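ok trying again, last paste got cut off:
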Amino acid sequence: MRDQLISGVIMAQIQRFKSGKQLLKTLTDNPDLPAFIPTVPTASMVSLIDRIGVEDSATLIEFTTPGQLAEIIDETTWTNPIPGAPDEFDPVEFFRWLEVILEVGEDFVVERL
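nice, full thing came through this time. structure:
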């Protein structure tokens, strides 16, 4: 219930920005970003990253918890194109994520993977 409420508030805030770049700048200019990102529910993080773009999200990904990152990658790399069918792994999306994770830095990779 709490996560749904937080997700709703975050989604409303995300939508008010005209561009993903404007949203990213606003987030990265906020000194509370490192403390805020670990509190964001997975669904909201996925929406936030979708809005900004995976390739531009390294700054946000840097502050995720290991569990949060695993859930985000799981959510974005397994798709279900046909309702009721088994999920399918998307290797192209997975490699996009690996590039972003590597962009954050070697220490981050070691800690998270």
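cool. The helical segments are 2-15, 20-28, 33-36, 42-52, 58-61, 66-77, 91-104, 106-112. The mean pLDDT is 85.
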